[in-house]
Amino acid sequence: METIELTNRQEHIVEIVKQNGPITGEQIAERLSLTRATLRPDLAILTMAGYLDARPRVGYFYTGKTGTELLGEKVKNITVRHYQSRPIVVQESSSVYDAICTMFLEDVGTLFVTDKQTTLVGVLSRKDLLRASLGKQALESIPVSIIMTRMPNITVCKEDDLIIEVAKKLINKQIDGLPIVQDVDYGSGYEVIGRITKTNITSLLVDLANEETI
Ligand code: ADP
After folding, report:
1. Cα separation of 198 and 105, whole Å?
2. Atom number of ligand 1 nearest to Cα 123
3. 105 CA to middle of ligand 1, Å?
4. Please, are residues 145 and 138 in contact by the beta-carbon 8 Å criterion?
5. Which of 76, 120, 143, 200 has the CA that lies 20 to 30 A from 56?
6. Global pTM?
7. Which residue CA neighbors atom 2 of ligand 1 most closely?
8. For residue 142, how far is its CA from the centre of ligand 1 (angstroms)?
C-alpha cells in the first residue's frame, strides 16, 4: 500500500465517492464529464492506496481513512527485516581497548559481545567504554565481560518483529539499538544476526516522507 499525494482530480473523486458511494466508475466519470477510460488510472491508484474500495457489481466506496491513518497502517506492517544493519561483534575475552578500536573502525555506537560459540552474552555502548576509561587500570587488561550489560538483561528483537515495536523498546529502555537474534541450534541462547538502531528508524522516516515503496 502506498501513501501518496493526491492530484486535484483524485481528491475530487474521493469527495464524490465519500458523498455518493457506493458509486460505479461510469457514474463518477459522468459527474466529472470525463470518460471511464480517463478515470481508470486514478481509480486504480486510489484503490491501491486504500482510499477507496471497489466491490464487483456494487461500485466504489470510501474506506473512511485519512492519509495519516493509511500511513500509520503502512508503518505498522514494516518489520525489522526491512531495516537492519550488519551486527558488529566482539568476543567476551576481548579487552576494553580492542572494543574501543573496533567501535572506531566500524563506526558504530553499540557492540554486541559473544562467547566462543557465537552466543550473545552482552552489549557494549559508548558510555560503557567511556566509563571504563575513567578508571586507573590499563584498558588492555580489562576484558569487556566485566563492564558489559549482560544476558539476561539484554533487550533483543527478531527479524519478523514490527519496527514500531522496536522503536517503542528503544524509547522505553532509553537505548540506541537492539541486536536482532535467532535461537541457536545447539542448547539455549541467541545468535546475533543483525542490528537495528535509531539510525535505521530515521531512514525509515525519510523513506516514508519520500513515499518510497517499502
Ligand atoms: P550510550 O550509553 O552510549 O548512550 P545506550 O543508551 O544505547 O548508549 O546504552 C545505555 C546503557 O544500556 C548501556 O549501559 C548499554 O550497555 C545498555 N544497553 C544498550 N543496548 C542495550 C540492549 N539492547 N539491551 C540492554 N541493555 C542495553
Report:
1. 20
2. 16
3. 20
4. no
5. 76
6. 0.75
7. 127
8. 19
